[in-house]
Amino acid sequence: MAQTKATQPKFLSRIEGSPSSTNTYVATAGGNPFEADEEEEIFSKRKMTLNVPSNCSGDLQHLIVAKNWLWCLFTAQGRYNLLRFFLPRAIPPGQVVLDKYLTGYKISNIFLDSTGHHLIISLVPKSAAVSADFLYVHSTETTTAQQLKVRRIEKFKDHEITAVAFNTYHGKESTTGSILLGTSRGLIFETELGAVNDTQRRQLYDLGLGLSKYPINGLELLRVPNSNRWIVVAATPDSLYSFDSTLRPDERSLQPLFTSYVNGEREPNCEKQKTDLSYSMLRFFAPPNSKYPKQWAWLCGAGIRIGELSIESSCNATLLGDTLIHLDFDKVKHLSYEERRIHVPRSFVLTEYHAVLLYADHIKAICLLNQEQVYHEAFDEGRVGKLLNIERDVATGAIYVYTDKSMFTLKITREERDIWRIYLNKGQYELATAHAAEVPENLQLVLAQRAEAAFQDGAYEVAANYYAETEETFEKVCLKFMVLPDKRPIISYVKKRLSRLTTSDGEGEAVKALIIWLIDLYLSQINMPGRDKSWRESWQMEYDEFMHESAVLECTSRHRTEVQQLIGQHADPHNLAQFAISISDYDQVIGQQLKAARYGEALQTLCKQPDLTLYYKYGPQLMAQLPRQTIDALMAQGSKLEVDKVVPTLIVMDTPEQREQVMRYLEFAVYKLNTTNDAIHNYLLHLYAKHEPKLLMKYLEIQGRDESLVHYDIHYALKVCTELDVKVACVFLQCLLCMWTTAVDLALQFDMQLAKDTASKPQDDEMRRKLWLRIAYHDIKGTNDVKKALSLLDECDLLRIEDLLPFFSDFEKIDNFKEAICKALKNYNHRIQELQREMSDSREQSELVCKELRQLRAQRIGMGPQAVCDICDLVLLVKPFFVFICGHKFHSDCLEKQVLPMLSKERSRRLAMLKQEMETLMAQTIALASHTAEQQTKRTELKTEIEEILAADCLYCGLLIETIDQPFVDDWDQVNVEWE
Asked: Given pLDDT bands bounded at 50, 70 and 90, which one contains residue 39?
């Protein structure tokens, strides 16, 4: 077992280097006992030397270790010296003389807590004149020395302490916390010991029930992890007791743990064992630094009983399991006391897998799993001294053996090394596998035996899985499984072996062979005759999962020809199609399905694949057989398909259903996909004209009456409608082409109201009047129906009675038109009066304008020297300026800066051009030092036009008011760019 690093006192600084090189107080004959060197044997003894002060020499009487703190008691000539060593560090040992406490007493046992700071020494009287007692030793340490303080605990007089259960949960270096003390009369007490104060003793339970000699040989206090359940285990020579109870989290006393037992509400769990021994011994094993034990062992008259501890907070049982290691005590009953003493263990310690027993002259280790002896070491009393005891440091796992002359460490080297083999021999394969996992050779042996056992038991699939993990030859294992009628084991084995291969150059062919063999095995099961549907579905599902694995897909894609041939030999079209789909060879799949007249499967395959070109290729064949389903598939693709490439599919119209589905897709393309392809629109229009004239008019109305916005060929549409005699559509189309006269003439043939509506559509009044005259001619000529003629006058305000009179015969009586003629004359008179009134108003307005012009000529505005520009507030007369009739005054340059941003782009460009021409003209004049009349005229014209642009209106009274509803920013994109 690997040694766990001891926890050192917090005030001690770490000393680098191995303990053997730094601690001058401890040494071993074979090196440092805490270094885990790899050795052949599991257990190996090494002598340990303590640098005992010269004044403390003598025979070793007791030794105990906890958390690397080693306490030992030396005696010489009636002098007792107690020493305390810290093994990993070079600290001078603590020392105290116990002579004054031991007058009339002898030491029966010593007990050490888990911190190594609290020691209890049990004293028994040498004569009847004194009573039993015990000493408490508390230790403290500094960086340079240790101090041991001894106190006699008077309150326990008359009680021989035979067992102590220290509180590892509440105990610390300064106090023990609540602890339990077991006596020679079977009493259990509670107390707390500390450096300064102690608590009063409390008797908690009586196992002896008044007997004068019923010693408690073992006592342990435990708390179940992650709970408040506490457990007490007590051992007597013939019985093992356990108590348990749930305490409050803040409870520090242990008395409530025994309350229900004292009150008679419960009885402690008791296991009795017939014995001839006057003692027993209780040991627990916990991994280093773990407070809760993993195993327990009880040395009793029958041998050593071992088991595990419950870790369930709600479990009633505490000590689980009951394996007995026989020590053959019965064989030594007839021997003398001295002989029997040699054959009966005096003490033992427990490791994870072994029990190390100490006898009078030797020690031996027994495996807990198979009860075999794995170690034996004899001690020559004459050479090393009398063998006294064996101790184990719970914190580190180190084992110490001592005699009255010497001390030894028992080093453990990988005690789990052969545990796998023991479990394997016992048939516990899970445990054997777990313990053999670190050594590949051992693991192979376990897996091979486990596979063979499973095969012999008929668990063939389990065996196949284990065989796949072994190094057994592939051919040998396959021959085992091939003879079986069930092919699942061989398939499982081959799949497992396949998963261990790679597609490298060396294993690529092996991968190919295994995959093709697996495909053959699967197809054989799927297509096996005489099997029901559920059988085939089960194998098919497993086959599909296998074929979709990435490694299988990669291999079958590279070797598609061989795989296709194999599937073809099994005559399995379904899986052949599925394989083609898996390698994306949909063209071949659909072609085979169509050849086999499996149109539904072909359409399903087409819908599953992503290649759109196959819709164009196989659409016509599928349309001939499955029109509705094919159109549904095309519509499902939506805008992914190019509608013009679908046209070959849409020309299949041998049946009414096919025609209906073609029209459905064309409508989908026009109304949902919003296609502008004129071929599609023309095709739909032709189908409407031939089969659904009502839908044709709806389509034409949706397309609108703007010739530039319709997506069909109007001339083609008119030709089709003319050939198919769809007159209403012809009228509509002729109107689009502005063939008003033809449209009205056609409408007059079958619908007078349509003709009238058509005649009202032109924007040109003259054309409308002309069309209405044609209607009037058609309606009146030959009938001389005066009422119809007069009704036309009400429907069209462009017609007059005089326009209709020529259509009547010369002999028609005027009386029939009297009312209409009078109404016309009245309208003429009203119109003449309105014209006269408008002429009078115009004359008055003209005179008013002339008057205002005369007043403006005489109006003037005076400028004083104090006048300033309304923009810059500087003197006005220093620069050219504009004065408006409203009184606002501006410098010409100030006005230009304000007006220029408000001008339109055209006027801005015009102003820039005029200013450039003016500058050119001025430069020419200066260069020639004279100017002609033509130049003067040109300059005046340019100046006048510039002033008309800049001073067309007052800035404050006109321009700013007109632009008040304009936004401050017109081009936000440009602004964003500038801000960035």
From this structure: very low
Phi and psi at residue 378, to the nearest 5°: -90, 150
* pLDDT value, residue 217: 93
Cβ(324)–Cβ(304) below 8 Å: yes
Closest to 343 in 3D by CA, of 327, 321, 365, 319: 327
d(CA 635, CA 384): 100
| Distance (Å, whole) CA 946 – CA 960 | 20
Cα separation, 869 vs 956, whole angstroms: 13
Query: Does 4 score more than 50 pLDDT?
Result: no
Nearest CA among 299, 304, 262 for reference residue 282: 299
Q: What's the chain's Rg over C-alpha atoms?
A: 59
- Residue entry with tokens 């130049």: 935
For the ranges 229-238, 301-310, 687-696, 766-775, which has the lowest average pLDDT? Answer: 766-775
User: In the structure, what pLDDT confidence band is assigned to residue 920 with cuts at 50, 70 and 90?
Assistant: confident
* Separation of alpha carbons 67 and 325, rounded Å: 30
Give the Cα separation of 357 and 264 in Å (integer): 39
Q: Are 220 and 186 in contact (CB under 8 A)?
A: no
Distance CA 164, CA 162 (A): 7
Reported confidence tier of residue 18, pLDDT bands at 50, 70, 90: very low
Contacts of 2 (CB under 8 A, 6+ apart): 36
Q: Which tens digit of pLDDT belongs to each residue from 823-834?
A: 666 776 777 788
Which of residues 366 and 926 earns the better pLDDT score?
Answer: 366
pLDDT (average), residues 231-257: 92
Burial of 166 (0-12, 13-18, 19+ CB in 10 A): buried
Say what the pLDDT of residue 31 is. Answer: 41
| Maximum alpha-carbon separation in the chain | 177
Pairing of strands 133-141, 187-194: unpaired
Using one digit for the tens of pLDDT, what is the confidence trace for 461-476? 888 888 888 888 888 8
Task: Give the whole-angstrom CA distance, residue 903 versus residue 910.
Answer: 10
- Render the burial of 739-755: b for 16+ CB within 10 Å, e for the rest: bbeebbbbbbeeeeebb
Which tokens hold the place of 766?
């003259």
For the cut 80, the answer to whether the pLDDT of residue 329 exceeds it is: no
C-beta of residue 290 within 8 angstroms of C-beta of residue 278:
no
The strand ranges marked E within 87-227 are 94-97, 105-112, 118-125, 133-141, 146-152, 161-165, 175-183, 187-194, 202-206, 218-223
Residue 700 belongs to what H/E stretch? helix 693-703
Tokens of 19: 């303990």
Query: What share of residues in the chain are helix, strand, coil (percent, to 5)?
Result: 45, 20, 35
Among 28, 47, 65, CA closest to 399: 65
Give the separation between CA 57 and CA 906, rounded to whole angstroms. Answer: 123
How many residues can be counted in the chain? 980
As a whole number of angstroms, the distance between CA 1 and CA 412 comes to 5
Q: Which alpha helices (H) appear in 638-675, and where do they start and end?
A: 643-650, 656-667
pTM: 0.57
What was the pLDDT predicted at 737?
A: 85
Residue type, 379: F
Q: Place 1 in a pLDDT band, splitting at 50, 70 and 90.
A: very low
Spatial CB neighbours of 43, under 8 Å, sequence gap ≥ 6: 354, 356, 365, 374, 375, 377, 410, 411, 412, 413, 415
For tokens 């490439």, name the residue: 645
Confidence band, pLDDT 50/70/90 cuts, at residue 78: confident
Mean pLDDT, the chain, rounded, equals 83
pLDDT value of residue 23: 61
Alpha-carbon span 281 to 445, nearest angstrom: 39
Chain-centroid distance of CA 962 in Å reads: 63
**Through-space distance between the first and last CA atoms of the chain, rounded to whole angstroms:** 72
